[in-house]
Each structure stands twice: as structure tokens, then as C-alpha cells.
Amino acid sequence: MEALSDFTAYIAYLPLVISFFALFYCWKDVGARWLLTLLITIGCFDSYSLQYTIHWTTHYYGWVILLNLLFIAPIIFRNAIALRIYKATQSTFFLEASKLKFSQQEAAIMLLCLISIAGHAISYVEVFLYKNFVIDILYFKNFLLAKLQIILSVLSTLAILSFAFKTKGLNYAQTKTV
């Protein structure tokens, strides 16, 4: 059973790793490249900060809620961010990046982040209740949260893969039709 728990610890990093491969696969699609770059940047920040925030015990769950909001922000504001950078730099990359339309996969990623926010909010409240001796056992945190996060990581990975395959990918220049 310990080998399984070691394996599940790595599943949390799966969306970030798949995002790197998706970035290379979708390199010719400027809008996909912009979105994946934003998500990878936040994912790297998340992975780096985990070594510090995991020791916060109580407020770790608040940090995870904030990071999930950070993952939602590029999906909602990426066009505005790209246009603002375009106005500052006049780089055509950012003008083209602002033209990416909202996709079903992005909606799925946002929904998964919202589910994660809800799960961590429940755990956050549960920990406060436990610390104030209102409850005796952290049911949700101990028995459900880790399993929920595994499911959300796998579904996020599938959403990223679906987004990558939806975009033109490596054959974009050859398959572009008029």
C-alpha cells in the first residue's frame, strides 16, 4: 500500500508535465502557446511553493484555494493580459494570442479548479472546527480530499490533452485550410 501512496504523490505533478508536452505539440498555435505558457508558469510556482506551504498545516488549504484562483485567472483574463502586453511591447505574438476563443477544455479546467476550491474550503473549515474542539475527526480531509485531488489531477491532465489535440498541433502548417 505504501508504494501506491508514493505513486499517487506523483499524480499531482502529471498536469504540469503533460502541459509541457502539450506546449511543444501546439507550438505553432499562438493562442494555445500563450494559454499553456501562463498555466505552466503558475504550475511551476505551485510546485515550487509546495515545499514551503505544506508545513503551514492550517492555512495550507487557503493557499491552495488562492492557487486554484490563480489557475482560473489566465483562462478568464488571458486575452486582456495579451492585449495589454501587446500595447506595451507592440509584439505581434501577443496580438495573435489575444484571438484565442474560449474552449470547452478551458471550461472543464475552470470547473475542476472550482471543485478543488470547494474541497479545500471544506477542509479549511474542518481544520478550524477541529482546532476549536468542535469536531473530533477530520472526515473530509482524512478520507476524501486526497482521493478527490487524484481524480481532479487525472481529469485536468485529460482536459489539457484534449485541448492540445483540439488545437492544430504539429501539422498546423500542413493542415490549415482556406
From TrEMBL:
Residue spans crossing the bilayer: 7-27, 34-54, 60-86, 107-125, 145-165
Superkingdom of origin organism: Bacteria
Keywords linked to the UniProt accession: Membrane, Transmembrane, Transmembrane helix
Designated name of the protein: Uncharacterized protein
Lineage: Bacteria, Pseudomonadati, Pseudomonadota, Gammaproteobacteria, Alteromonadales
